[in-house]
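writing this on my phone so excuse typos. first protein, seq and then structure
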Amino acid sequence: MLATDQLGEFLSAVADRPDGPAAHHAAVECAARALGADIAVLMIDGGVVAAIGLPADKVPAHPLAEVAAGRRSTLELPSGRYAATHATIGGSATGVLILGRTRGPFTAEEVCLLRGLARVLELSLQSLHMIESERRYAEENGRLLGYLDQGRRVFEEMAAVQRAIGRRLPVPQIFDMVLAAVRDLLGVDMVAINLLEPDDRTLGSTVAALGVPPGAAAKRHRIPIASGGVSGLAILGDELVAVEDYASCPIALPPMTAIQLESVMAAPVRVNGHAVGSLTVGTFGSRRVWEKPAKEILQAFAEHLSLALTDARTLEAMNQAFLDSLTGLATRALFQTRMEEALGPTGLGAAVLFVDLDRFKVVNDSLGHAAGDALLTGVADRIQSCLRDGDTAARLGGDEFAVLLPGVLDAGEAVPVAQRILDALREPFDLLGSETFISSSIGVAFSGPDQHAVAELMVHADLAMYQAKKHGKDRFEVFEPAMQEAFQEHIALEADLRRAVVRHEFELRYQPIVHLHTGEITGVEALIRWMHPDKGIVPPMDFIPLAEETGMIVPIGEWVLREATARVAQWNARREGPPLTVSVNISAVQLEQAALVHVVDSALKSAGLAPDRLVLELTESLLVDHRAATLERLGALKALGLRLAIDDFGTGYSSLAYLRRFPVDIIKIDKSFVDDVVDEPTAAALTHGIIQLGRALELSTIAEGIEHAGQLTSLAGGNCELGQGYYFAEPLTGAAISDLLFP
């Protein structure tokens, strides 16, 4: 394991150096000492900047380049034969730190340590580079980032933050410095730092803020990142998001509009290249046009936060560099190092299994984190029991595991291992004295020596795992190249979807719901359409699953709810006779949000729509896979006075027990039954049976997909109350249905 004093020595030696050359030499000396190396060389942009054990002018450039490229693991020098290893340095000036020693090869653990040291060096050099660049820019152009007389001031604030990072002041203290600097420089009313929760990256919290009312700040704790408004979107999309008219934005948060937040801008904060939070600013009471200089300043300070967090988390990770503290399995860093050994030119090749638990979040939420930790430990033990002595199992984070099988080069050898793991994890776990069942989805990929890079093979295994999830979970899939093509399309569509939320590219269509005996329109179902600027109309079946997977269904669903209730309330104000109802679909992801009840109540009150005029439609499978919190939330929604419907009834796992247990008011008969109600006696009997079931339970019935008069006659004759379908009208634009309602 890594000795704390080695780490502390390296951090202090590098961070305390005032310039690049001093930091270079300190890093080389400390790295050589930490790993017992006889020679150490630091190369930046292809040139040698520091060396130990070799004169700088005698450094053999070509052999070192071969080591840096991973094509050589030894060095033949006049002074002897050295085992060699290296670690790359990223950032604005790329480089490599190379070590050699005569007493034997470096272990995987030592290579992990070297990479951690290289990462610290990279951050320190990046800090020095940023300070120097900002100083030079300020001297050359007094209007830094476009601000007429603030160049020097901006530089001084940034330099102060950089010095705090270099001295490794506590992270909360650095947060406070950034908040104060950004508020003063941009002249905004509110600044906040939001970070993802370490134990659940789908949740985020405001960890520091200035100018945010205490009541609003208290509500920003462990909220789903998908319902985090502009801040959440900046994290999900990993890009700056600027909104000038916040109140009309589809992802506006009611608690923030309630305190008259007018304009908002958020920039992502990253750790190791991944968005883990956001730096958000806003104005109250007056609208702000976010000009380019303001965006640049916000992004610059977000980068400083990124540097501080990356530095702190690198230090934390290096103290746990090799073994996962919970399960005792290898960490991601050690696992990847062993992958490199297997996939290198002198390795044997390997297969990689990416193992992701199904429904772990349900267990963790329902039984508690202690039970979740016990489950992860049990999973680790079972995975380990399925492997050979030379294989490596690792916990990558959360409920993600990986397995390395050196020397396994085809599916024939890897698949039996995947099957053993699947079988082992299907057996019950004893958690808190009760049996708990889970399953797993596994992706399998393999590579010969020097055939694929580590990151590439991990991506292949990850893609295969997602394919297993798409095909029903509790199974394995072997990587195929077509998976990568589909993934690239998926990524492009996801990026478009995030932009669509901010650009208001969604529209609603309304399909009439008709009383089958009188022909009167009694309500409408609101159906979303995406008007893509290049692809035209994107059908819901193409983007709703993606919206649910990414969490974007939360802001999209809230917009649908507010838009539909407002529009129907307007029609009801003009309409004589019974007011219309409006049906809105609610996904399982939305139902998991604790804020859903407040969102629905707020939408009804803002629109001025009576609660009994709103119908929320739920899928049957959602009720079957429910948790205790689901039933509680449905009860709270019912308490508002609205009605609940089961959509596509009969296509899932229908059960009288669910109909009795859940506060359902309406059954919607799936189109697959309606299609054959005239021609197939069995379908007719089932359809009429569902209608009679609804009547017996005092539930309304709505038949979906009515397309011709024969279906209407059969359903009306069977006492079905309501229906919708192309026989009456296709989903219409707001203007078209307005013409239908008010000819």
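second protein below, same order as before
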Amino acid sequence: MPFRIGLSGLNAASADLEVTGNNIANAGTVGFKESRAEFADVFANSYGDITKTAIGSGVRLEAVTQQFSQGNIDFTDNALDLAINGEGFFVLNDNGEQLYTRAGAFQVNRDGFVVNSAGQRLQVFPPVEENSPDPGFSTGQLSDLQLDFGDNPPRPTSEIDMSINLSSEAEQIVDEEAGVINVTADPANTGAVTESRVYVVDSSNPNYLNPFTLTYDATNDEYTYDDGTGTQVPVAAENVVVSGDKTTITVNGWAMELYGTPADGDQFSTAPEATATVGSANTSAVTVSSLAVLNSSDPDILDPATLVYQGANAAGDEQYLLNGKLVLATVSGGQHVISENGWELTLSGAPDVGDEFSVTFEPGAPVKFDQTDPETYQYSTALTLYDSLGAPRTATMYFVKTENTLEWEAYVDLSGSNLSPPQPQGPVKLTFDSNGVMTSPTTATDFTFDLANYDPVNGGLLGEIDPVTGEATGVVSIDFSDITQFGPDYSVDDLNQDGFTTGRLVGFDVDQSGVVFARYTNGQAAALGQVALANFTNPQGLLQLGDNNWAESYAAGDVVYGEAGTSSLGLVQSGGLEASNVDLAEELVNLIIAQRNYQANAQTISTADAITQTIINIR
């Protein structure tokens, strides 16, 4: 019996040496997990034996278990070297069989698949939306990770977000040499024209202050006006520009903008804001009957004028002092008519000597916005948009202050317009409360751009891609809601758009959650998949296959797939490899212990042999 006990001890010590030697041999193996020899004593009891006097029959190897403690992470310069910091296994596809490993030394094969040195493919959760930086992943399925070495296709701009501050001290830009022009719509209009505005274009035009009425002729699709002789004159076609629901009519030194669709016979009247007043000290016998513009190009027409009645001279002419200058009035039907400085004043009644009369034209007509003239807007900023072919397009946003202290107008214009004249999109009215916070618009505003009107004419489009036709819509949505009106300064805090041009591949990155990104020269990153991790209830029960791989087994429990950093799964470290968790110092000590155990068990056999020889030698 001692021979068998000693022999079992030799076998156990030999197994311990083998396990320790295997650990030492794999001290440099990536992802290797050290093993531990576990032993059990042997008792051979039969029925009726007295347990407390039973002698053991030696030792046997109970199990060799792997220890899944974390190994050190050694950093490399290869983005496809992956390590798991925490629990979990990489999932590999070996010709349809799922294998599991902690060794993350991966490379790319000729077909672009990410594989290990044995050609087994790394498994990932595929993206829901391809070529998207944040697509979401289908965690219910696994697929081989294949890297895309092609160019990143362009995406047309469809949305613009901006955070801009407009000066609260800005004032409306006006032409101080022009008069304010009022615009009224005839009451018979259908109401389809919702708004009309007039801007001074050329205050030197001799007719720009003359009141007259525009009439829309639907039959000929033209606008006409009275030339002063009762004849209706059509407005030249090149002076009528339609852009969306806005019609701009330019004539006689001013431009009228009509919003909506006019009906046949609709009329729109213009008149300068001019006043003539009678001095409070005058007799009530004199009233001002009318004030008319004769020559708006007269340089003195906008100057305030004071007339003082001087009485009749020797020749019977009625005399007035106009700002100290003697002028004569024409008497007709009991009325005094004074024609000076491009205007004509008619007084009814009999004035007394010294009576005063004032004539004024309200200066400060609003100037029409012209993107080519910086004097017509307060602020502008630009950003680059991209069409569906990746061509850059510069969009400039212009901001114009209105007469309302809490209101602005925004225009958008693309560079390269081949329209004559260029037609900027807008205006969009921006209104603010007394705290400088925007109150409208509260939603994004859509602008439609037909790139056939802008160079380069390459067939590209702007806007979101229609999933049915595959064509871009041409609509760009601009969100103005983050614009503020604080303080005296203009500033751009943020200006973003969602388009980009074509990009060439720069490299690949893997983040801590295992998402694999392809990086491109256009600044974009496309997610190609998310590295799938697996875990088991009892990893020590996995079946060892060699080549740093394990397979499922009944003892390990069911496999659970998940994303890195969730549940009990660790994080993925790119550019690093998990080293073996073998502690060489500990293993060397184990060698000494195993050696002594072997020698001691050999001594047991030797002693048993000596005792046996003694018995044999008894005579």
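Helices lie at 2-25, 584-616. thats all i got for now
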